[in-house]
């Protein structure tokens, strides 16, 4: 009955209402620190700014964080899990596209390395034929491929380690909830968090499996 902007809402109107009523209403439902998430979404989605892929990834993660926070209150007749799944699907798609671009860049670096190595072979032959010839600059091997490979290995290890830690965390959470002696007042909130986390984990594992298959 007392509302800054009446429905129907655009996204901009909705985020404005969040900001206007944050301290009096929403800050009592979700952590107040999430106001920074609201401001981030408004800044990049409602001011006409162009969003690059990196920013898009951040905005999707912030959206997931907000939806996850509200899940502790209600599933809103099933709307919230559906919205979370769609946002997560967008994030997974963006991640796959960015990974494909990284692979493409790595392949391009490999092609450049092959060209450099070929030039090195020519230089070595010239040096053998003319000892007084100065060493050619192309003899230096371009290191970007090796750096890209090392970074890729670290990225894969980080993802797998994150999956393992998440599995441990939510497995412990679920088994605690299945034990009647361990149930606490916050069981509903924690179980919903575990459920949403496992949905996210399933998408990540499927993405890893598809990547390994490729």
From TrEMBL:
<dbReference type="InterPro" id="IPR052626">
    <property type="entry name" value="SWT1_Regulator"/>
</dbReference>
<dbReference type="GO" id="GO:0005634">
    <property type="term" value="C:nucleus"/>
</dbReference>
<protein>
    <submittedName>
        <fullName>SWT1 protein</fullName>
    </submittedName>
</protein>
């Amino acid at each position: 009955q007392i509302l800054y902007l009446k429905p129907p809402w655009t996204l901009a109107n909705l985020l404005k209402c969040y900001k206007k009523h944050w301290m009096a209403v929403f800050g009592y439902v979700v952590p107040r620190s999430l106001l920074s998430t609201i401001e981030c979404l408004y800044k990049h989605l409602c001011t006409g700014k162009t969003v690059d892929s990196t920013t898009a990834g951040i905005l999707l993660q912030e959206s997931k964080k907000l939806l996850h926070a509200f899940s502790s209150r209600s599933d809103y007749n099933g709307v919230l899990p559906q919205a979370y799944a769609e946002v997560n699907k967008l994030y997974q798609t963006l991640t796959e596209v960015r990974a494909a671009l990284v692979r493409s860049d790595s392949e391009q670096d490999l092609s450049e390395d092959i060209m450099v190595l070929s030039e090195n072979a020519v230089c070595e032959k010239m040096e053998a034929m003319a000892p007084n010839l100065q060493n050619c600059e192309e003899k230096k091997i371009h290191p970007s491929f090796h750096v890209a490979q090392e970074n890729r290995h670290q990225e894969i290890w980080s993802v797998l380690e994150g999956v393992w830690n998440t599995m441990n965390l939510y497995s412990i959470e679920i088994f605690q909830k299945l034990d009647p002696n361990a149930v606490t007042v916050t069981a509903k909130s924690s179980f919903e968090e575990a459920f949403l986390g496992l949905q996210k984990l399933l998408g990540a594992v499927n993405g890893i499996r598809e990547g390994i298959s490729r």
